[in-house]
Amino acid sequence: MIQHSFADFQFTRPLFSDRVALAWADPRAPMPPLMGDEVLSVEQVAPKRAREFGAGRAAARAAMDLLGHAARPILQGDDRAPVWPQGLVGSITHSDRDCLAVVTDDPEIRSLGLDLEPMVALDPALWPEICTDTEREWLASLGPSQRGNFAKLVFSAKEAVYKAQYPLSKTLIGFHAITLNFDLASNSFTARFTRDVPGFDARHLIDGRFAFLSGNLITGVELR
Description:
Blueprint: E1 2-3, E2 20-25, H1 47-66, E3 75-76, E4 82-83, E5 89-94, E6 99-104, E7 111-118, H2 127-130, H3 133-140, H4 144-169, E8 178-183, E9 188-193, E10 205-213, E11 216-223
Parallel strand pairs: 1-2
Antiparallel strand pairs: 2-6, 3-4, 5-6, 7-11, 8-9, 9-10, 10-11
């Protein structure tokens, strides 16, 4: 994975393959310059949301540069998803203090999904909404002090899968539309669809990876 030097993140193993570039931007910094019709997406939003949008585009353009591409606008569709320039696919995520983007020009990669979450335990009241019965059984097998953090991992992994499948399916799916199996030894997971989604039959499998870094949880999915 091509990696921009940023913040305190040091990846111990790649989340994506070699032709995927990752870059960082600070959503707390002053609003970076936007390109072309990108400005239309921030005309009526709160300043915090505008800075997040700008940081996401700045990170994505830094990733483009790592791949050798000139900066281009990344517009926002009616569904608020990024509209990537022709020949590129990517994903953007942010927390209050970090914004990450991954971009690739590899024609064999159909879509990318990236999610960043602060490493704060997920409220147990949310577990039934987020987790399938199988996932809740897995959480129950863990030590009590671990369960909340790994429930957050379930949430983040499903967010990454959702972001990766959406550009292909154009379908909003709930958390129970997929169920996850984790391999903690290899920092990897497999997502299985529990129902048919356009482009993905029930039982279709998607692989992903995760990392715990500097108080953050990062999950990534690469669809080929």
